[in-house]
Amino acid sequence: MIIPVYVNGVELSFILDTGVGSTIIFSVDNKNSLELKNATKIYLRGLGDEAPVEAIKSVSNEVRIGKALSASHTIYLVLDESINFSPRMGFPIHGIIGYDFFRDFIMDINYSNNYIKINRPSTYKYKKCKKCYRTDLGFQDQHKRPFLTAKYKSKKGLIDVNLLLDSGSGSSLWLFENKEKGIEVSENSFRDFLGKGFNGDIYGERTKIDELHIGDFMLKDVTTSFPDSVYIKGISVNNRQGSLGGGVLRRFNVIMDYPNKRISLRKNNYFEKPFHYNMSGLTIQHVGFAFAKDYNEKDRFYIGLNKIINQKTVQFTNDFVLKPKYEISDVRPGSPAEEAGLKKGDILIEINGRKAYTYKLSELNDLFYLEEGKKIRLKINRLGVEMRFDFNLRKVI
């Protein structure tokens, strides 16, 4: 969920991420326009296989979301400009915000209507809810990150797993393989790009598990990712078996009660929807803008070349405007896209006969999650040469 956040009076767009403790900024177009106070240099480590990244730690900042205010807030500014989540989202993302801001509040997160409400504990009253699952949260990593116990069905039956609540992740479920505990990758899996972390791209196995139990709720055929061990070696996995991401959390309306270390879940209209995954093998990212012709009809009276339509005089003008530019950033080996001949770095021109720039990035990605057998027709630019490719979406798991 993307929310507006004011940092020292400057409005920015942040990912609401329960999986992080600190507030981190990693992409500001003009860093000089954002004043950060009392700065010192540090290094940060996260998922990925690269070295720790250089950052600035700044204290005593004012951070506001709506009417909720943190008057003396610590912020970390990542200096490496290549660490930028905006291309994968398709719109500006300046940072992530989690525990350090919300620790004094109770949050109502309504995924059905796409809003959050931030409440003060002194005035908040829980409503009676027979259909809700309410339980205590565990906190690790200096008590900043919330964990929830769930059960997943494996070859050895139902296994308890301690999961980080990671609302900032678009994935459904991540599990860390541990054969001794019965947490194993299914034979019916495929290798895939799983996401991007602070320390680089993350790869691993993607599969589906039969059942995931959270209290009295049971989710079936949950898309699940098993990251390679190299990507998690730098993080603390003590008593942690994985992460519960936005793909699962969005199926509930959630009350995150940080002061009392409680959570309440009530299923919403997304609960029964099936879990999908990318059947094309393509990962698309936004890589800036390009000029494109925009054909407009403007009211004119005998100016230039005119045409009478419905007794009204209009003029056709060719305006060049900036439109989003999309690039293939990853192609899964053995996927329909790779078999068709598509390559990393190809620039999208058309998809199914429609100009690529007329899509939002989320709409483009949705095309690859459609029904099996759906035909995808692409026109691309490869090093200045326009080419066409066709393939059909294919289930792997």
Automatic annotation (TrEMBL):
Task: Report keywords, A-Z.
Answer: Hydrolase
Q: Where is the PDZ domain?
A: 328-354
Q: GO molecular function of the protein, one example?
A: aspartic-type endopeptidase activity
Mind telling me which Pfam families this protein's record contains? Asp_protease_2, PDZ_6
What GO biological process, any one, is recorded here? proteolysis
User: Does this UniProt record's set of keywords contain Hydrolase?
Assistant: yes
Q: Does the keyword DNA-binding apply?
A: no
Residues in domain Peptidase A2? 12-48
Q: Known SMART domains for this protein?
A: PDZ (SM00228)
PROSITE patterns reported for this sequence: ASP_PROT_RETROV, PDZ
Do you know which InterPro entries this protein is assigned to? PDZ, PDZ_6, PDZ_sf, Peptidase_A2_cat, Peptidase_aspartic_dom_sf
Question: What name does the UniProt record give this protein?
Answer: PDZ domain-containing protein
Q: Which organism is it from?
A: Aquimarina spongiae
